[in-house]
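Duplicate of #3305? Posting structure anyway:
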């Protein structure tokens, strides 16, 4: 997800942190990234870590 924030943009990016077999047990993470005007990362933080087979519970 990409959204405008005061002074720029913010993006949430999902990545595979640790690939496993079967793939449903791979470790995934969501990072929140603040890019500069050229697209380079100014700051980032991991906001979530989970296994690929995990689903979100309804709120």
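Output from current build:
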């Amino acid at each position: 997800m990409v959204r405008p924030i005061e002074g720029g943009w913010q993006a949430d990016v999902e990545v595979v942190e640790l690939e496993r077999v079967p793939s449903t047990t791979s470790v995934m993470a969501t990072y929140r990234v603040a890019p500069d005007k050229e697209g380079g990362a100014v700051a980032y933080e991991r906001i979530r870590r989970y296994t690929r087979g995990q689903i979100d519970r309804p709120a």
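Confirmed duplicate; merging threads. The chain has one domain: 2-51. Residues 32 and 49 are 12 Å apart (CA to CA).
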